[in-house]
Structure formats: C-alpha cells, structure tokens
Specification:
By secondary structure, the chain is of the alpha+beta class. 31% of the residues lie in helices and 32% in strands. It is built from 2 helices and 3 strands; from the N terminus they run βαβαβ. The chain starts with a strand and ends with a strand.
C-alpha cells in the first residue's frame, strides 16, 4: 500500500521572486488590475510507501525537493 504526499515549496519571505514579479506584470498588462505581491512556487505530489516516516519525507525535502536556504516547504498527507 502507499499514501499520497503533497509538498508545497515557496520562496522564503524577503527572497526576490523574479517569476512572481513577471506574472504580476503580465497580469497587469492583460488588464487584471489590483493584483499585487504575486509569488510563484511549486507543488510536488508523490505516492510513498505506508511505512515512510515523517522524518524520511522531511529528509527528502531538505536534500532534494526544496532549497532550505531560500525556500520554505509544507508537507501534507492526502
């Protein structure tokens, strides 16, 4: 058996987000007014074995899925 895990990765507050700024600018150009503080991140979904521990999932995030120096991550079980 397996369980579904979602990992949401976003930049830490204070880290420049050029992709977020580009999205914000493009939305304004398309006529969507009042859009501010756009941030861009990534969502990683995976199935892991039932016996995978929270510590192992955190280790996956720390070693590969996120850059803990500039990114925060949130783990959710489905």
């Amino acid at each position: 058996m397996s369980k579904k895990i979602s990992v949401k990765v976003t930049l830490k507050k204070g880290v420049l987000d050029p992709q977020g700024k580009a999205i914000e600018h493009a939305l304004g150009t398309l006529g969507f007014q009042g859009v501010e503080n756009v941030t861009q991140g990534k969502l990683i979904e995976m199935d892991v074995a039932d016996d995978t521990t929270d510590a192992q999932i955190k280790e996956m995030c720390e070693q590969l899925l996120a850059n803990p120096v500039i990114e925060d991550y949130e783990i959710k079980s489905a």
